[in-house]
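Project standup — Tuesday

K.O.: blocked on the structure for the chain from last sprint. Re-posting the sequence here as requested.
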Amino acid sequence: MADILYPLHVAVQVSDLARAEAFYSQVIGLKQVERSLTFAGTWYQVGDFQLHLIVSEWASNPVREEKWGRHPHITFAIRDLEAVKQSLREQGMPFQMSSSGRAALFVKDPDGNVVELLQVNS
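H.V.: unblocked you, prediction finished:
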């Protein structure tokens, strides 16, 4: 069995790179980093972790359940949930509050990939 140390990245399929970049850069606020691969995509650095957007003709993730958090999703730690909620409202982005009572919300990217933003106290 492998001795897993820590996660390095997660890859998310997107259908329209410019539209996805607008969401992850402007709505979520991630910082893009350079990449040297030849296929279409964009990488974002979050601490020691990366999010990889990969253009794919199969990128369609319709959220079928009422509760978005029950779908595969990626979670980012945030400091101020109220500020994030206000920003999403100003941008016209629908979101769902966590039904667990945690200080968290769920938002979908343009391809339906679910992103959780969870307030932490550090």
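K.O.: great, moving the ticket to review. The mean pLDDT is 90. The longest strand covers residues 49-55.
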